Amino acid sequence: MDSLVKKKIFENRVVLITGASSGLGHRIAKEFIKENANISICARRLSKLKKICKNKKKVFFQKVDISDEKAIKKFIKKTVKIFGKIDILINNAGLLRSAKIENIDYKDLKKTFEVNLFAPVIFLRETLKIMKKRNYGRIINISSGGSVNCAETFSAYSASKAALNTLAKTLSREVKNCNIKVNTMSPGPCKTEMFPRNPLSTLLSMPTVKYLSSLPRNGPSGKFFWFMHKINIIPDLSHINWSNPNYFKKINK
Length: 253
What we know:
Elements: H1 2-7, E1 14-18, H2 23-34, E2 38-43, H3 46-53, E3 59-63, H4 69-83, E4 88-91, H5 106-134, E5 137-142, H6 146-149, H7 155-174, E6 180-186, H8 206-213, E7 224-226, E8 229-231, H9 245-251
Parallel strand pairs: 1-2, 1-4, 2-3, 4-5, 5-6, 6-7
Antiparallel strand pairs: 7-8
Helix pairs in contact: 4-5, 5-7
């Protein structure tokens, strides 16, 4: 009986997923289709999106270059026109360009941040307007273990993903009274087109995705998750009185 109830959690929800043509985004889209949710997905490769959506109802898909702000806004507007709302946003699309810092090409650096950070910010900005009107929203930024372990040659990727972690922390404070929860998660070393040598199935990330997508009003926000584990990657410094110079005199003694 419990399993039947759980399957109905997402039935009337509208889920927007970026980068859904392959890898983790593809898996997430398929899982929410199974949950009978309303799905809006985008990616660069239209042919792959069509395969996901073939003979599927309650699914809207569109080719979107997420480095184009106008394209993002049009996609979101179309999603709301079709479904009337957006309940869950999953910023999944990502780009990897690896190089040692001394060899980084500026164009690669710029593109990495356009896709991994700037686009999620635009999706957040536009989607928040819709979520605030309904006083409900659940947001997941797909980050990476790379944002914490910072492997060599992954500087641009790691930095852009680390920015997503702090973005969630800031936004969680801005929407704390709006019943909107925003968190980041690492899917772990999942095997995808971007990381073909990784050992794990993307299926292992689905419990965390579903958990963060269905948080209650008193659920966590501004946190970082890894396989259902909440990990403190940003220290809590709220106890510090930043405006009191005497505090810093004390700690410097």
